Amino acid sequence: MTLPILHPDPANPDGASAKVVSGEVGLSETEPPEIITAGARTAITDFPHTDTGNAKTYAQMHGNDVRYDWRRGRWLRWDKHRWKLDDDGHVMRQAIAVSAELFRRAMAIRDEEQRKKALKWAMETQERRRLDAILAIARSLQPITDAGDKWELDP
After folding, report:
1. Digits of tens for pLDDT over the chain (155 positions)?
2. At residue 26, what are phi and psi to the nearest 5 degrees?
3. pTM (predicted TM-score)
4. Quick one: which of 127, 121, 136, 114 has its CA closest to 49?
5. What sign does the dihedral 59-43-97-28 (CA atoms) show?
6. Collapsing DSSP states into helix, strand and coil, what is residue 137?
7. Residues ≥6 apart with Cβ < 8 Å to 103
8. In what order do the strands lie in the sheet with 145-146?
9. Strands 83-85 and 2-8
10. Considering only CA atoms, which of 61, 66, 9, 11 is closest in space to residue 36?
11. How far apart are CA 92 and CA 103, in angstroms?
12. Contacts of 53 by beta carbon, 8 Å cutoff, 6+ apart
């Protein structure tokens, strides 16, 4: 499966922007996909202030350790050894973490008007309907989406 791998833009070392490079990521039931990092930290791209933008942020932040199994209609999470059913709201806590990340990013904006808009969006993202939208859209995004037809196969 091809997954965009983000690397910091050398022209902007503070990490405010990143360039995309395609890479291959292998998936199996017993191993998580490789963790995509840019140096010492994960490069995060700023997406538009929309539900889809929030879902893309979720996929970028958490896509390495969650899957949505379409065949069975369930979320799975990586527990460092295997894929496990999300039976305790883990993916919702990750969606909440997206709103915290949006708030952190908003606070770093120097332009007061832009910062106010970004803070307003970060606050709106904490609403249940926005959190539900993150998960509803993210389950269709790579690398999260999974047909679910290979989970029972022997590795």
Report:
1. 333 333 333 443 333 333 333 333 333 344 333 333 333 334 466 899 999 999 999 999 999 999 999 999 999 999 999 999 999 999 999 999 999 999 999 999 999 999 999 999 999 999 999 999 999 999 999 999 999 888 776 55
2. -90, 140
3. 0.70
4. 121
5. positive
6. helix
7. 119, 122, 123
8. 83-85, 74-78, 66-69, 145-146
9. unpaired
10. 61
11. 17
12. 47
| Amino acid at the residue 38 | A
Do residues 146 and 68 lie in contact, with contact meaning Cβ atoms separated by under 8 Å? Answer: yes
Q: How many Å apart are CA 94 and CA 91, to the nearest integer?
A: 5
Element (H, E) at 77: strand 74-78
Rg (CA), the chain: 16
Q: Specify the amino acid at residue 13.
A: P
